[in-house]
Write a structure and sequence with these properties.
Helix content is 82%, strand content 0%. The protein has one domain. The chain contains four helices and no strands. The radius of gyration is 20 Å and the shape is rod-shaped. The longest helix is centred in the last third of the chain and has 28 residues.
């Protein structure tokens, strides 16, 4: 009789695993942390661009998860802001030359 329930048990385990992944806010936290680091590093233009893009991408991926949506949106905002600040400093450096 236990062999009849293996498919059901496997499907139930997969469904629980997907639900747990959707409720996890880890990716949103990572996006937020990378966004803060990107904003701090944005005066160094290339670092601000790379880290800002990483924060925006991580935020875009994790915004679909309800538990991480708010942190993901903040991470996206910080990433875009870091890119803009990096462009500003890059433009200022070129203008000085």
């Amino acid at each position: 009789m236990s062999s009849e329930n293996t498919v059901t048990d496997r499907l139930l385990a997969d469904a629980r695993k997907k639900t747990t992944q959707q409720e996890s806010s880890t990716l949103g936290k990572v996006s937020l942390i990378v966004g803060v680091i990107a904003l701090l590093a944005s005066p160094i233009s290339i670092a601000g661009w790379i880290l800002g893009a990483a924060a925006a991408v991580l935020g875009a991926v994790s915004v679909r998860r309800p538990a991480a949506a708010k942190m993901a949106k903040i991470g996206i905002t910080l990433g875009v802001l870091a890119i803009l600040v990096g462009v500003f400093f890059f433009t200022m450096n070129i203008a000085r030359m």
